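Homework help board

Subject: predicted structure for assignment chain

Our instructor gave us this sequence and asked us to write out the predicted structure in token form, then describe one feature. I got the tokens but I'm not sure how to describe them. Can anyone check?
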Amino acid sequence: MSLSLPLVLEWSGSLFSLAGAFVLATNTRHSRYGWIAFFLANFLMLGFAIEGSHWGLFTQQVGFTATSVLGMHRSGLLRRRRARSDETIEPRKSQ
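My token output:
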């Protein structure tokens, strides 16, 4: 069995997708990292779809990529970190 690009993309995408589903299903404080696995799987499957001209799969993966980005945002993975409220920020002195 030779490892062709479509085969690697297909199986890598499938395994990352299963890993993401498992991590989300654990419902722990680490579950949000499942969205990252889904995001990686989406790009791998997009590559597979392009390589094989599977345009229905491509369209589906574009939609899944959008839901992965939404999931990362809502879980806090894409939010900027704010300064902690107990830290005081000194104002700049005018020169």
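Reply (TA_rk): Your tokens look well-formed. For the description, you could write something like this. Residues 49 and 58 are 5 Å apart (CA to CA). That's the kind of observation they're looking for.
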